[in-house]
Design a protein that fits this description.
This protein is an alpha/beta fold. It folds into two domains: 138 residues, no CATH class; 103 residues, Diaminopimelate Epimerase, Chain A, domain 1 (Roll). It has ten helices and twelve strands. Strands 7-8-9-10-12-11 form a six-stranded mixed β-sheet. A four-stranded parallel β-sheet has the order 2-1-5-6. The N and C termini lie far apart (49 Å).
């Protein structure tokens, strides 16, 4: 059995360290002879697929999850429809997360740290609000803030960011009043994910590029995430791509626009 790993992030680094610790063979998916980043992960050029492979948050270019399954290739992922972990509730974060799926497949029992990493990756909002079994909100907060050790008082920074976000303009998406944090989010995106989830704040941010804008919304109700994906984005222009998961309460879209 060979694992093929996608783009690098905290969860993937943890998966890699577990495979190494347990002597499990793995390689990186590549694009143009470099390890894939997150935007390239589902258009990997290499390695060639082998029966018995396990592709983790990546796919070879031109293959769907269903096609890989039909060829005897396993897929571990939770980001898109058809993935084993897609559309699973916060309460099933361990079974839904890629880290949890790897551990289940290899018979590795979850430690508290592994649970926290899985919950943070799958459903940061749920982890901060007591909806993930085995994840205590206060202990989880300490775990998350430990990543921001460059700050003397990371909790104070979260509070400051919350105050800044509350002063941002709002837009209405379905029944949700959503804070547009575009002007302040891009310089500190990781912090804003934790701030918004900790304070259960509904947010939208926009990344404007030539001819297109990417929008990201988080913490809306499942109903309003569905509305954003299927109706709201169509009012903004030509939709190039839309994705998200109402169960995880996030969505994103890429919209074309004139210069």
């Amino acid at each position: 059995m060979r694992f093929v790993l996608g783009g690098k992030d905290t969860e993937m680094e943890t998966i890699e360290s577990l495979l190494k610790k347990h002597g499990v063979d793995y390689v990186y998916a590549t694009h143009n002879e470099q390890r894939v980043n997150r935007s390239e992960a589902y258009n990997a050029h290499a390695p060639d697929i082998q029966v018995g492979d396990v592709w983790v948050e990546t796919r070879p270019e031109g293959f769907s999850v269903r096609e890989l399954f039909s060829l005897g290739i396993d897929v571990i992922d939770h980001h898109s429809e058809g993935d084993p972990g897609f559309a699973r509730p916060f309460s099933e974060y361990w079974e839904a997360s890629s880290l949890g799926q790897v551990c289940v497949k290899l018979g590795i029992q979850p430690t508290q740290r592994l649970r926290y990493i899985a919950a943070a990756d799958h459903c940061l909002l749920g982890a901060y609000h007591g909806q993930c079994p085995g994840v205590d909100r206060n202990d989880f907060l300490k775990f998350r803030l430990s990543y921001y050790d460059s700050e003397d008082d990371p909790m104070a920074k979260l509070k400051r960011l919350h105050k800044e976000a509350l002063a941002c303009p709002t837009v209405q998406i379905g029944d949700s009043t959503v804070y547009d944090i575009t002007e302040i989010a891009n310089y500190s995106r990781g912090w804003f994910n934790d701030m918004a989830c900790y304070y259960n704040m509904k947010t939208i941010s926009r990344l404007v590029k030539p001819n297109r804008t990417k929008l990201f919304v988080s913490n809306l109700s499942g109903k309003d995430i569905d509305y954003f994906m299927n109706e709201y984005v169509k009012t903004l222009g030509k939709v190039v791509k839309v994705y998200g998961d109402p169960k995880r309460q996030f969505a994103a879209a890429v919209i074309l626009h004139a210069d």
